[in-house]
């Protein structure tokens, strides 16, 4: 039975990756051992880790100025780790508040230095990406959440500044090419576009490190993980393996450049239906700010009591994970890299049939 997985994360992975991962659980590369039971210092796993790092470098066009780390602790640990490693107590970092994850990043950064909120879209429950704000030049860095998983907004242009950007790209990493030189740190929990839950990617511009005067525990210091090639302690072997397979898949599709038309076609299909269908409306009204990864929509007010009925209709058509986040309500279709257009079409068909019945 084909189930269309619209979950926000942990999320859909390519079917071929799932098949390869399942085989490696039984027998990793014909070794007679499972990927789940081999040493993180074994030749087999070191090769996996090296390939994962090379693929990240190749897909994003990273120079040697950047280190690629596979860490644990989720993107949530990067909220504090980025500030702890970059920001002195008497220095100020700029944050753009575009939702629940940015708000958490701001809270954690305040533990380590001054935070200036440069702009916020809180006034409309984060339904747009702020524009036209000033960025003072004396900040240490500017932090953004590139894609707001809960609210369905996405930066299509990154803030104009010479300061290094620190970006939480948990829900749109590898979905498009990046002007990489503008970033000081990029971090992402794997469980949307890269792999299963349990590993976190951090891309760090090395010259930004070593400039804070606080003591940092070894595990929380980027430099420790750079010096030890992400194996200072036992890294999450299986999530890194599955991430490597997914990165191979992205490369085989034609790289992040090939993800753009693929993701745009899916986004156009769902947003066109949201805008056309008399029963629904988009949460993000300015089309320019709409996420290519998480499409959020609600029922028009006069149909509001039909929310459960729509979820039931989606479930009957094997469309799973369509319920919106509780802070937004309504529905959310997460349409990450590996989702096929036919799955989006399946949901659009449910929306059309629902309107034919109820509108
Ligand atoms: N940032 C964003 C944009 C997210 O969507 C999430 C949710 N996965 C997080 C951070 C938190 O990630 P984690 O659960 O890996 O800590």
Residue windows where pLDDT falls under 50 for at least 5 positions: none
Can you summarize the main beta sheet?
7 strands, mixed
Distinct ligands: 4'-deoxy-4'-aminopyridoxal-5'-phosphate
Q: Which CATH architecture of the largest domain?
A: 3-Layer(aba) Sandwich
Strand order of the largest sheet: 2-10-9-8-5-3-4
Beta percentage is 15-25%
H-E order: EHHEHEHEEEEEEEHHHEEHEEH
Q: What is the total domain count?
A: 2
CATH homologous superfamily (4th level) name of the largest domain: Type I PLP-dependent aspartate aminotransferase-like (Major domain)
CATH topology of the largest domain: Aspartate Aminotransferase, domain 2
- CATH class division of the largest domain: Alpha Beta
Structure notes:
The chain is an alpha/beta fold and 359 residues long. It has 2 domains: 15-253, Aspartate Aminotransferase, domain 2; 256-358, Aspartate Aminotransferase, domain 1, CATH 3.90.1150.10. The chain contains 9 helices and 14 strands. The strands form 4 sheets. It has a 7-stranded mixed beta sheet with strand order 2-10-9-8-5-3-4, sandwiched between helices. β6 and β7 (153-154) form a beta hairpin. The longest helix has 22 residues, at 255-276. 4'-deoxy-4'-aminopyridoxal-5'-phosphate binds at residues 9, 74-76, 101, 145, 149, 168, 170-171, 189.
């Amino acid at each position: 039975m084909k189930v269309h997985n619209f979950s926000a994360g942990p999320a859909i992975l390519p079917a071929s990756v799932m098949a390869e991962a399942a085989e490696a659980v039984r027998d990793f590369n014909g070794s007679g051992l499972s990927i789940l039971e081999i040493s993180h210092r074994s030749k087999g796993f070191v090769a996996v880790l090296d390939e994962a790092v090379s693929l990240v470098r190749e897909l994003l066009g990273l120079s040697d100025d950047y280190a690629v780390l596979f860490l644990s602790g989720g993107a949530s640990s990067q909220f504090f780790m980025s500030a702890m490693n970059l920001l002195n107590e008497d220095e100020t970092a700029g944050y753009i508040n575009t939702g629940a994850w940015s708000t958490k990043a701001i809270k954690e950064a305040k533990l380590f230095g001054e935070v200036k909120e440069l702009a916020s879209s809180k006034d409309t429950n984060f339904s747009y990406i702020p524009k036209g704000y000033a960025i003072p030049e004396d900040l240490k860095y500017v932090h953004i959440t590139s894609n707001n998983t809960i609210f369905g907004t996405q930066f299509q242009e990154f803030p104009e500044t010479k300061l290094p950007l620190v970006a939480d790209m948990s829900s749109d990493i590898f979905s498009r090419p990046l002007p990489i030189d503008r970033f000081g740190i990029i971090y992402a929990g794997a469980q949307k576009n890269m792999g299963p839950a349990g590993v976190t990617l951090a891309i760090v511009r090395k010259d930004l490190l070593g400039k804070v005067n606080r003591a940092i525990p070894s595990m929380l210091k980027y430099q420790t993980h750079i010096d030890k090639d992400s194996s200072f302690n036992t890294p999450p072997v299986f999530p890194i393996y599955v991430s490597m397979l997914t990165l191979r898949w992205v490369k085989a599709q034609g790289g992040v450049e090939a993800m753009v038309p693929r993701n745009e076609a899916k986004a156009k299909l769902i947003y066109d239906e949201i805008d056309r269908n008399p029963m629904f409306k988009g949460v993000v009204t300015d089309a320019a700010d709409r996420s290519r990864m998480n499409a959020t929509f609600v029922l028009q007010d006069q149909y509001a009591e039909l929310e459960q009925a729509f979820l039931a209709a989606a479930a009957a058509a094997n469309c799973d994970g369509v319920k919106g986040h509780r802070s937004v309500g309504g529905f959310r279709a997460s349409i990450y890299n590996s989702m096929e257009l036919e799955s989006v079409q399946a949901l659009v068909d449910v929306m059309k049939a629902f309107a034919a019945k109820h509108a």
